[in-house]
């Protein structure tokens, strides 16, 4: 593009189009969250627990095989946000779930 603005990229030491730099920055912000067996997780997926987990503060234990519906990614590569009956604000580690 002839009329594109150019920006100096300090990482490469080159002048690059601003749109290319913005696209690279956006791609770098994407965090991949994988379950215990390596499947890629996304918002809205259903997962199953692979281990009994004690829920701190709720006085409850989630048993292995429990289905968790409609997860949300938090931006952390190892944490997922989810809802479960009677437990508000449940955050699980991705290493303890398997995609269904």
Judging from the principal axes of the Cα atoms, what is the shape?
elongated
Cα-to-Cα separation, first versus last residue:
45 Å
Counting helices, strands and paired strands, the structural category is mainly beta
Mean pLDDT: 88
Content of β-strand: 35-45%
Low-confidence blocks of residues: none
Structure description:
The chain has one helix at residues 18-28, and strands spanning 6-9, 14-17, 47-49, 53-55, 60-62, 67-68, 72-73, 79-84, 87-93, 97-99. It is built from 1 helix and 10 strands. By secondary structure, it is mainly beta. 11% of the residues lie in helices and 37% in strands. The longest helix is centred in the N-terminal third of the chain and has 11 residues, at 18-28. Strand 1 and strand 2 form a beta hairpin.
Q: Which key phrases capture this entry?
A:
3-stranded antiparallel sheet; 1 helix; mainly beta; 11% helix; 100 residues; elongated
Quick structural overview:
By secondary structure, the chain is mainly β. It has one helix spanning 18-28; strands spanning 6-9, 14-17, 47-49, 53-55, 60-62, 67-68, 72-73, 79-84, 87-93, 97-99.
